[in-house]
Amino acid sequence: MRKLSQGERHKVSFTLNGKSVSGWAAPRMLLTDFLRRELGETGTHVGCEHGVCGACTVRLDGDAVRACLCLAVQADGRAVDTVEGLAETGGALTAMQTAFRKHHALQCGYCTPGLLMSLSDLFERTPNPNEEQLRDVVGGHLCRCTGYAGIMAAAREVAGLSGNGEAE
Amino acid sequence: MKPANFDYFRPASVDETVALLAEHGDDARVIAGGQSLMALLNLRLAAPRALIDIAHLAELSYCRESDDYMEVGAAVTQAQLLNQPGLGQAVPLLAQALPHVGHFQTRNRGTVCGSLAHGDPSSELPLCLATLEGGVVLRSARGERVLKAAEFQTGLLATAREPDELVIAARYPLRRLGAGYAFAEVARRHGDFAIVSLAAVAHNGTLRLGVGGVADRPVAREWRLTPGQSDDALNEFAWALGGEDDIHASARYRRDLVRKLGRKVLEEAAACAS
User: Fold this and answer.
1) How far is B110 from chain A (nearest CA, A)?
2) Between chains, do B190 and A135 touch, taking CB under 8 Å as contact?
3) Spatial distance between the Cα atoms of A121 and A99, rounded to a whole number of angstroms
4) pLDDT tens track of chain B, all 274 residues?
5) Is residue B185 within 8 Å of residue B197, measured between CB atoms?
6) In Å, how far is B52's CA from the nearest CA of chain A?
7) Of chain A's two ends, which shows fewer C-beta atoms within 10 Å, N or C?
8) Among A2, A7, A64, whose Cβ lies nearest the Cβ of B108?
């Protein structure tokens, strides 16, 4: 059994976007704060901090999850992927990022990292998701700028769906 | 906000977990997926001194079918159960209800048993357990016991679990031959807390309806009726549930949903029965 005492900082190591990283965290430290403050990776945003808004969504062992509902110590030894890991070396955007840009799927951009991580999980599991699957995933995020139309348009384009949700 | 301080324990087995619970009792909370508990910790609605993590326990990560029920271990996530091959044949009501549980992103981490242990009155998984008359397996250093759904959940976020007990599995009864099942809910946004959720079973001339989101826990009733004769029974049920006005909906709207949507799910279940 492992016991991590309160008030002390414990070493947390995991694979972040393919690279080994480590830092120190008290048991109560959230994965969001660990990523942003301990590792300096500020691409993961903090919104509601109780699992509703989706801004902090990262991938944990490939699954899109809320980083605000995960303790840093729970990520120890696992694989974490964040928005910083999406673009390829040299800065080339992914197809989804390009589509977001084309369809004005962001204005202030606060919700964008979370949406991109959720959609990247969906598209890896299901290369050609249907309208219902897209809506299910986008429905797990709050966006207060776009009204979701641009986000859905971008996701539909990458999914090869026409504007009305049918395969082209 | 951030959680208050706690000691974090990662036991290596169920035996170690129940020993920790025996030692810490009410001062401890068990975390599996944490999709309800982490929000309570962040908001400081819960501030346990010890947090016991069971998410990694392989002995609790299983779905097993017996003759009568599907047993779901306490480390199984909602996404794993939803993706379980043959779920629609084995427990059709779960296959219909699970897509309504939270969002894709929370189902990836949230567990089936965690939802039962949390005991939110509008949650789908406790509603399915109550409607199907399933059970919850509890283990402590004193031994093991199985509670029926109606005995397990005792109110709003309240269960009959003793402080030294661990929920180790849920038992969802398998599809009964010739029975029909249906599920529906109304929420402001798909994946949000349901204003009213409804689960129906039609079998051998009886209709059974479970309702979540109105009373302080899911409640089920059974009648020997056809859906066409159910209006009076549904009206009486809607009043008996004693829903209240709140920020999400009025009591009257909730009663209307039980009457109107209740009849629809009963019809759908009856149409699926043979």
Assistant:
1) 10
2) yes
3) 16
4) 899 999 999 999 999 999 999 999 999 999 999 999 999 999 999 999 999 999 999 999 999 999 999 999 999 999 999 999 999 999 999 999 999 999 999 999 999 999 999 999 999 999 999 999 999 999 999 999 999 999 999 999 999 999 999 999 999 999 999 999 999 999 988 888 999 999 999 999 999 999 999 999 999 999 999 999 999 999 999 999 999 999 999 999 999 999 999 999 999 999 999 8
5) yes
6) 9
7) C
8) A64
B143: its two tokens: 């031994």
Chain A nearest-CA residue for B47: A28
Q: Which residues of chain B make contact with A54, given a CB cutoff of 8 A?
A: 103, 105
ipTM rounded to 2 decimals: 0.94
Name the 3-class secondary structure at B1: coil
* Cα end-to-end span (Å), chain A: 54
Give contacts of B41 with chain A, Cβ < 8 Å.
28
Token pair listed for B272: 């699926």
A84 CB-contact burial (10 Å; exposed 0-12 / middle 13-18 / buried 19+) = middle
Domains of chain A, first to last = 10-83 (3.10.20.30), 95-159 (1.10.150.120)
User: Whole-model pTM?
Assistant: 0.96
From the list A142, A138, A107, A109, the residue with the least C-alpha distance to A42 is: A109
| Cβ count near A79 (within 10 Å) | 14
The domains of chain B, with CATH numbers, are 7-53 (3.30.43.10), 58-173 (3.30.465.10), 186-272 (3.30.390.50)
Nearest CA in chain A to B53: A74
Among B118, B187, B104, B106, CA closest to B153? B118
Tell me the C-alpha distance between B41 and A49, whole Å.
10
The β-bridge relationship of strands B28-31 and B7-10 is unpaired
B16 C-beta neighbours (distance < 10 Å), count: 16
CB contact under 8 A, B108 and A63: yes
Alpha carbons A140 and B190: distance in angstroms, whole number: 9
